[in-house]
């Protein structure tokens, strides 16, 4: 199993320069490979598989930085294309200087080590680190991702691998969760969990700031001020949101042995109902599911994600009838066959809980 630890680092000036250069060169390679692939794809519908080595002669500056980072950039792009061909993501995008993409390097011949107060990294040497938690001895370091935020902070995310014997737990308590626009989710007992008010307030502030940015003259000092304010607010929202999602997923993992959730395809949704898709990604539903998954698995518990086409909303949780013409605006599910009258999301959550249990029994042949 894998686990990542994120720590803040404090590089000195020359280390900062090298980090910026490494990020820049990786962005360059990403864009160059993408451009070549795009051309080939438009002409033939086939995809090239270029390697960093092929670019090093034409762009010798690529030899100046950690070569493992370039190999990882190539791998990440291959993954992005795979997602595209599996219809899970859009065509990979060009990376711009504005967004903070990290670079990843791997452990080879002791080139990475966590020392007291420092982390040793390829090319950079020893970088000051604030390690706020200890790493268990049995964990094996695999890779490190170095990143810089829009607000000028530097981080490392260190990925470890470990072996763990996990005994599957019997299912005594299960829960079904349906994503809700107005709350965060509704469970199969009809309990509605609200999204933290202060994050909602921050979303509104963000909207105001973004609107005011659009009125400023690009490049002016006022403009830069607003850009920084927006980046700081984004950062704050991200922290608060992760904190909320971690606490919530911890509490659910503690209490339930089987958690069933709605499977959402954001890509399809962004075409059919863009507002809905945006709200889901703002709330961090996908992130929430990934937190739940690894937390449950390390406890021998199970997460079941519904197939995208499972009609959780359209099915009557009482008699099983399917209402094909159910509109998104219908907040109450009314079944003409059995006269069930129930909150739409509650009805869906009951279905998700039932279907999750059925899938669980099938998967583990119970
Ligand atoms: Zn019914």
UniProtKB/TrEMBL annotation:
Pfam families: Cas12f1-like_TNB, HTH_OrfB_IS605, OrfB_IS605. The keyword RNA-binding does not apply. Residues 157-271 form the Probable transposase IS891/IS1136/IS1341 domain. Keywords: DNA recombination, DNA-binding, Metal-binding, Transposition, Zinc. Residues 285-352 form the Cas12f1-like TNB domain. The lineage of its organism: Bacteria, Bacillati, Mycoplasmatota, Mollicutes, Acholeplasmatales. The keyword Metal-binding applies. NCBIfam families: guided_TnpB (NF040570), IS200/IS605 family accessory protein TnpB-like domain (TIGR01766). InterPro entries: Cas12f1-like_TNB, RNA-guided_DNA_endo/Transpos, Transposase, Transposase_put_HTH. In the C-terminal section; belongs to the transposase 35 family. In the N-terminal section; belongs to the transposase 2 family. Residues 1-44 form the Transposase putative helix-turn-helix domain. This is Transposase.
């Amino acid at each position: 199993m894998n686990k990542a630890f994120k720590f803040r680092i404090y590089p000195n000036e020359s280390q900062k320069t090298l980090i910026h250069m490494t990020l820049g060169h990786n962005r360059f390679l990403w864009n160059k490979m993408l451009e070549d692939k795009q051309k080939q794809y438009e002409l033939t519908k086939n995809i090239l598989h270029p390697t960093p080595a092929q670019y090093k002669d034409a762009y010798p500056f690529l030899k100046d930085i950690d070569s493992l980072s370039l190999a990882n950039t190539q791998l990440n792009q291959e993954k992005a294309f795979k997602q595209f061909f599996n219809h899970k993501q859009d065509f990979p995008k060009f990376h711009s200087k504005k967004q903070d993409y990290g670079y990843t390097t791997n452990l080879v011949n002791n080139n990475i080590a966590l020392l007291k107060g420092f982390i040793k990294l390829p090319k950079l040497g020893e970088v000051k680190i604030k390690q706020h938690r200890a790493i268990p001895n049995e964990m094996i370091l695999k890779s490190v991702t170095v990143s810089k935020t829009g607000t000028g902070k530097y981080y490392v995310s260190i990925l470890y691998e470990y072996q763990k014997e996990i005994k599957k737990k019997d299912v005594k308590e299960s829960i079904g969760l349906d994503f809700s626009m107005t709350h965060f989710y509704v469970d199969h007992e009809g309990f509605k969990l609200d999204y933290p008010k202060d994050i909602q307030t921050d979303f509104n502030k963000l909207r105001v700031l973004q609107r005011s940015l659009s009125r400023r003259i690009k490049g002016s000092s006022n403009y830069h001020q607003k850009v920084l304010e927006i980046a700081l607010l984004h950062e704050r929202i991200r922290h608060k949101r992760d904190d909320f999602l971690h606490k919530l997923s911890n509490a659910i993992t503690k209490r339930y042995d089987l958690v069933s959730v709605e499977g959402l395809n954001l890509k399809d949704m962004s075409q059919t109902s863009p507002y809905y898709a945006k709200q889901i990604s703002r709330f961090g539903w996908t992130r929430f599911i990934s937190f739940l998954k690894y937390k449950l698995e390390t406890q021998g518990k199970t997460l079941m994600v519904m197939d995208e086409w499972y009609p959780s909303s359209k099915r009557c949780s009482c008699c099983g009838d399917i209402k094909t013409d159910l509109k998104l605006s219908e907040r109450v599910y009314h079944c003409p066959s059995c006269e069930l009258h129930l909150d739409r999301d509650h009805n869906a959550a009951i279905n998700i809980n039932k279907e999750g249990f059925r899938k669980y029994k099938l998967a583990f042949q119970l």
